[in-house]
Fold:
Amino acid sequence: MNQELYRQRIAVVGPCGSGKSTLTRQLKARGFRVHEPAQEHSGVPDMWQRLTDPDVLIYLDAELSTIAQRRRIQWGQGYLDKLNRRLRHARRHAHLYLPTDGLTPAEILDRVEHFLQGSRTVNSQQ
Structure:
């Protein structure tokens, strides 16, 4: 990979259980400068920009059924809807929007690395 890729500031956002923490750990282990700004917990729409000012914004998404399979949750669709409202600004500005339903952590990492090596904007959800 091009060394310039490793100098980029990468932010990973999305609702709880979408795979952000796992992806962040995997990318850090590969030498990337990546941060998870926890935008889903902030009522400030552009907190992801204020905390990280990323060169690349990756938005991971997941349906409630997927999130419930991945982790034990005490909340339902209403709370997920609230998280998604908080994330709306980040989703609109994401360079990569990736629904993670049905994907393994390795598949998510592969798709993100492929994106980082190639095209710059893949967000069909704007």
